[in-house]
Every structure is written in C-alpha cells, then in structure tokens.
Amino acid sequence: MTHEQQIQKTCARIFQTDPKNVKLVQRLMGGMSNFTYIVEADGKKYTYRITGKNADNFVDRDVEEYHLKLIEPLTINNNTVHFDRQNGVKIAEYVEGVPLHEKDPYDYLEQAASVLRKVHHSGEPSIHDYAPFDRLKQYEDYLKDMGHTHDARYWEYKKALESHRAFLDQGEKTLVHGDSQISNFIVTAGGLKLTDWEFTGNADPFHDIACFGNNNFDHAIALLPIYLQRTPTGDDYKRLYLRRVFQCLQWHNVALYKDKIGLSEDLKVDFDYVGGLYLDKAEALLSKLK
Fold it and tell me: Which CATH number does the domain 98-287 belong to among 3.90.1200.10, 3.20.20.10, 3.30.160.250, 3.40.50.2300?
C-alpha cells in the first residue's frame, strides 16, 4: 500500500468520509526519517505523519501522546485530531505558515525565546525525564547490538562531557520540547508555533536553547541573552555549550543507527557522513571550553 492509499484509507475512516474526498497535497520536507504530508479531507487541511523505519526505538508513542496532551493548554502546537500509539500515525490541524529555517532566525529570536519560556515556565512538569546520559547509553547499546564499535573520538568526547556531569546535574529541570531546532518552529500570522514533540521530557531548559542552534550554533548563542533577559555569565555559556555537545553525541548515534538499518540508501542521505559531522561539531564545541 502506498502512502497515498494509506492516508486516504485512514482519513476516510477517521473523518467518516469517502476516500475520494481525501487528497494528498504535498510532502513536507525537513525531517530526516519521518514522512509528513499535508492532506485535505472534505476541504480542510491537516498534517499526516507516517513514522520512519524503526523510529519507535527512539520515541515511545505513549510518552509522546502524554506530552501532546500536557502541552495543549499552551496553545503553541497545532491541535492533534488523531494519534495512533501502535503505528505512530499522527493527524493534526494544518497551520498556515513557513518553517523558521526558511526565514532569518535572527528576526524571530524574541518570539522563539517567548515560546520556549512558555514551555519551561508552564508549571506542568512531565512524569518522564529526558535522562540524557541514560539516553546516550541506550543509543550506544542499539549500535553495539548491531556489531558497531564507536571510534576513539566518540569516547574521548563523551568522557569530556561526563567530566562536567556534576556541573550539569546541579542545574534546574523543567519541561522541555527536546528538539527545538528551527525547522520545528512555524512562522504564522499569529506568531511562532512549535511542532514535533517526540523528544519531550524534563531536562535542563538550556537543552532547548542549545538545540535552537542545531543548524548554526550562533543562533543559540544569540538566543541565550534574549531568553535569559540578561547578560549571560561564563557558566551560562559553559552550560549551553555542554548541552549542545550532548546533543551532537546523541544525534551522532542516531545517524549511525539510521545508516546501519539501510536508511542512507532508502532516503538517499549519507547518515554515516552526517554522524561524522556531529562528532566534528562536538569537537569544535569542546575546544571552546578549554
């Protein structure tokens, strides 16, 4: 069954309409493994997500659904109208707008800071912790089980990160989005929306600031003083850099895993190369802390 056939069949059932009234408008690009489409059912637009190969190894769908309900009162996400915990299919109301990566992020720093403060200050902590170091170990184990041996650079950078664990663990924890890179912000007429809550949990709020710099870390550096509403201290920058180092190691593991299961060939993306780039980024970040 093609994606179009699957979408028509599911939407016809969910919206109780004829499959002929369901149209696939276009695929939204940006995600490296999930397939997200704009669909139209009975004249109304929705987004329809089909999860990528083995995506459930990284995202617990029960946890994702829990967080989608938790953040509903914040009104910063597009409303979910259908969520299937078994296969990860998610249908949400479509929001007219443009992904922030297609704009100049520097023009939206105030809005991005406001959205993230809204998440972090929501007063509604999750029952799930992001547990960064446990998460790294889990991802490493996936690769180990597939016969992969991490190179010396990875262990060097992880050891460097762990040497700062006492410093990192003393910080506060709040609800965080977990994957707040600019491609997940949508510029709309009513302000910024923040989508894709697959990696949400309790963590250091600086995690989200660091993730804003996924494409260009200068974006995170520029966002930090605006988010804090004060001049950052040396420890603030250290915390930001270290959170980004963790993310680089995390996504390095994910990229290598995607390569191992054949997604480089399936999606025509060299995930082994992408994994190497994340190690290069971790190295550059750590060099700033010396």
Answer: 3.90.1200.10
Two tokens, residue 216: 């260009």
- Rounded to whole angstroms, the Cα distance separating 185 from 97 reads 10
- Domain spans, the chain: 3-93, 98-287
CA torsion sign for 263, 267, 273, 275 is negative
- The ranges of the chain with pLDDT < 70 are 30-32
Note whether 285 and 217 are within 8 A (CB). yes
Q: Please report the beta strands in the chain, taking only residues with DSSP state E, as ranges in sequence order.
A: 22-28, 35-41, 44-50, 80-83, 90-93, 98-99, 174-176, 185-188, 191-194, 201-203
DSSP state letter for 199: T
Rounded to 5°, the CA angle 283-287-290 comes to 145
| Structure token digits, residue 93 | 């109301």
Instruction: Name beta bridge partners: 41.
Output: 22, 44
pLDDT tens profile 125-160: 999 999 999 999 999 999 999 999 999 999 999 999
pTM of this structure: 0.94
Q: Please, which residues have CB within 8 angstroms of residue 196's CB and are 6 or more apart in sequence?
A: 31, 179, 184
* Distant-in-sequence, close-in-space partners of 263: CB < 8 Å, separation ≥ 6: 33, 52, 53, 269, 271
**3-93: in CATH 3.30.200.20:** yes
Q: Which amino acid is at 214?
A: N
